[in-house]
Amino acid sequence: MKRVYVNEQWCLGCHLCEYNCAFANSGLSDMVLALKGKPIYPRIHIEEGEKISYAVSCRHCTDPICVKSCIAGAISKEDGVVRIDKNKCVGCFTCVLVCPYGALAPNENGVMQKCELCLQNSCGEPACVKGCPNRAIVYEEREAAI
Amino acid sequence: MKNYVIIGNGIAAAGCIEGIRSVDSEGAITVVSEEKHPVYCRPLISYYLEGKTDLERIQYRAPDYYERMGCRVLYGRKAIRIRPDSRKAELDDGSLLPYDSLCIAAGSAPFVPPFEGLDSVKDKYSFMTLDDALALDAAVTPSSEVLIIGAGLIGMKCAEGLRDRVAGITVCDLADRVLSSILDTECAAMMQRHLEENGIRFLLGDSAARFEGNRAYMKSGVKVDFDILVLAVGVRPNTALFKESGGEVNRGILVNSRMETSLPGVFAAGDCVEGEDISSGQKKVLAILPNAYMQGRAAGVNMAGGSELFDKGMPMNSIGFFGYHAMTAGTYSGEVYEEKTDHSLKRLFTENDLLKGFILIGTDERAGIYTSLIREKTPLSSLDFEALKKAATTAAFSPEMRRKKFGGVV
Hints:
The complex is a heterodimer.
Chain A: E1 2-6, H1 16-24, H2 31-35, E2 45-48, E3 53-56, H3 65-69, E4 75-78, E5 81-84, H4 94-98, E6 105-106, E7 112-113, H5 127-131, E8 137-141
Antiparallel strand pairs in A: 1-8, 2-3, 4-5, 6-7
Chain B: E1 3-7, H1 11-21, E2 28-33, H2 45-50, H3 65-69, E3 71-75, E4 79-83, E5 88-91, E6 96-98, E7 101-104, E8 108-110, E9 124-125, H4 130-139, E10 145-149, H5 153-162, E11 168-173, H6 185-197, E12 200-204, E13 208-212, E14 215-218, E15 223-225, E16 228-231, E17 235-237, H7 240-244, E18 253-254, E19 266-268, E20 273-277, E21 282-284, H8 289-303, E22 316-321, E23 324-330, E24 335-340, E25 345-351, E26 354-361, H9 368-375, H10 385-390, H11 399-406
Parallel strand pairs in B: 1-2, 1-7, 2-3, 7-19, 9-16, 10-11, 10-16, 11-12, 18-20
Antiparallel strand pairs in B: 4-5, 5-6, 8-17, 13-14, 14-15, 20-21, 22-23, 23-26, 24-25, 25-26
């Protein structure tokens, strides 16, 4: 199963992945229209420590605790991808309470969202990976199971 | 081919079905469902009143779920005895269901104290099931005055669900604060203030002494007139079936981490069991949905001959009212780290180099990072706790821990 991985040595902390993510999931074809002057709600976020930075998005866990914990039955895992049914989510934040990676957050309407690998938006492949200027974010198959 | 019987048809039962099917795709699964509904999201019944979900979306699984899982569901049936010697479950219609392994996922039931004059109240409701919600939904009108007995999670969610549908809501509780099972005095006061700002009235530290028709006479001397009474005092695990069948029970059905009970071939899961709270080491009824699912799943895997432990249970709740959220987990013991503003509060409890619990109110923290430290019993000395206190971030972890967590080169 291909997943998004990040090399923290290469991450510049430029936050471009957050903008690319928000744009890819906006449903709009013009980045300026989609993002300019608006607060953005990306599904990937940069974590910053004293000397490091790296992007975090859903790990699509082998044994996802968010799926088991969702009180609305809104989170499921199919074909290796953990997805949220926005129509069922009631915004209770239980997934936020259990995700060990901090990979879920609400959108502008209080409905939870997370990385779904851009498989169902117009980008078709992870926009964060495609747009990372330093190739710190990669989309690949790895041995390490999460 | 094995015969599996599941008593109950809630979230723990769904976990059990999915656990069984992860190991055994052939065996016959029979679900005994006292409620006449397919598995639904029980914690969402207040959202149904509020109009944030409906009868379609409140379903926990897809319409073809039981068919796809190869399950027979007996709706409206109740198990009255388990015969562990002959491995049969006896139902209320006299039929006997043979099983190789059985799971009790019977949930809990509202506890109603013997209030004087309660019989004289015509419009009174519990708030545990979808049928309760449907009955309340049909009973309330824009001019209804509602009295809710119990300011716990159930009573308060009911108040939120009804607020825009009725004239007024009064909530009383013997405890001196709201949500007393998960919030201490100060945190509860913040939540209460928010609830009051949203129109909910409270009579705390007070209880109904008696009822006369549509009037409650409180112990304090206050009289409350109401059209609709909701009884949300508390819940009790449904243990009677198991106990009467000779099983060992404390407050809930006693289980080990394989979810096995004292009766051979009998497992139990969900709100009816008492399991270990790893944050305190105590045995507790952990009546929350995530635990119900995970316990059910572990039971199912083990029933089918696989091996899965449920050994990471603890209390945790994410609950919001009118847009204001509280997230809590674990045990509130040890040293306290606190951050506070007028409308937000963070408290972390640490003991013996471990995070034991937390309370977060009105913050937008990625709380799961804290929860995982409690669950995994991560030594705080192995990470930068000074940084982690201020914000829940994996950046405070050691590089090795991050690599392990993120599966590679991070």
